[in-house]
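Review this today:
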Amino acid sequence: LGSLLSVTLNIEEVAGLEVAMLKRKIEENLNGKLYLWGKITGTTQDYLIAYYIDPFDEFPEKKYYFTTTSNYVLKAFPSLSDDYQNQAKKITSLFTGDPSFFAYNGEDPDAANEEEEDPDAPPVERFREIHRLAYTVNKIDHDCAVVPRGSYVVDATKRVINNTYFQGLSYNSANELRSYLHFRKPESLQALALLKRPGILKSSDFLDSIEKDSPKDLWVVNYSDSGLESHLRNIYWEGYGFYSVVNSNEFGGAYFGTGVPNYDIFF
């Protein structure tokens, strides 16, 4: 992904994240692997995001963890109320890199900290940057996370699982948007109906195709200079990149960016 996104983790970030992932896996006794989701840059420090997929879930949903680049300790995202999600949608400024930051409306952080110094007082619950980060990561993943067509199948118990027989996309199909599917629970009526159909599904259309995303030019797909990989980029979330090796089951994606979308695409 380095050549596709022009951004990579530095040596310190790689080492710190690997250790943090190992600790989190042991502490929670996780059965599967933790994977790098990406990096969201802040004005003072950056966030590194990892995720875990429970291999026994009906659909491979992700659980996210974050750490800052000043303290490599992975923490799970908090849950989000509807009110917090609505607040997060309205913010267009850059991230600061401080999970506890809350002064989006001009509040005085020092004055608020003085109010919270009373050890007997209950903790003040308020919308903070960590809530915005959780919303943003989920939104980017919903809009961008993709897999090649045919790389996942539905088994007899209706579980969506990795297709061990997947041999990759052909050279011609790797350059077509219809060859890539959203890696999320289906939302289109066609995909939902197909997923509910009894018996084993032979079709891979139980996931939504990115070809039907709006606006029409939301995705850009092309070959690498060598022609051995296809590269996929999202124009709205400009930091997202995905690659798929032609005639191979190797593929992957990540986000490296500000966490602020390209609003100009809709004008």
Q: What stands out?
A: The two ends are 30 Å apart (CA to CA). The CA atoms of residues 18 and 79 lie 25 Å apart.
